[in-house]
Amino acid sequence: MHITVDDITDPAVIDLLDGHVSQLRSISPPGSSHALDLDGLRAPGVTFWAARDGDEVLGCGALTELEPGHGEIKSMRTAPAARRRGVARAVLREILAEARRRRLTRVSLETGTVEFFAPARALYAAHGFTECGPFGSYRLDPHSTFMTREL
User: Fold this and answer.
1) Which of 5, 74, 80, 102 lies deepest, with the highest CB count within 10 Å?
2) Terminal CA-to-CA distance of the chain, rounded, Å?
3) The whole model's pTM is what?
């Protein structure tokens, strides 16, 4: 598996992200889905990684800086065919390593509260994230779980 910064032009990456956004919007009520679309992921200040095995896109994730020293993880996704192969864990480790290189002192994220998101919450907890209140522009939402980790 190779994880590299990606410019989000590969049709396979775009398909993965389109499926990600569509699925999250189908699970979360309007106003409670905070997944970035392609334009949001291509915005200045967002770094996006794709995990690949040869030409196969396995997963992705992104990091943006909310304020000096505080980053947010966005768009973590594993392709359905690549689940349970350690893709999300590897992408998360790459994002956290980059956050440290940037000398961020805290990294946070938002994920859902329903059962579908339980594996994501468990992954983040296993990597030292703990639940917290809303951060950045988020507001309290019964459909959101907010997590953070000091670096």
Assistant:
1) 74
2) 25
3) 0.93
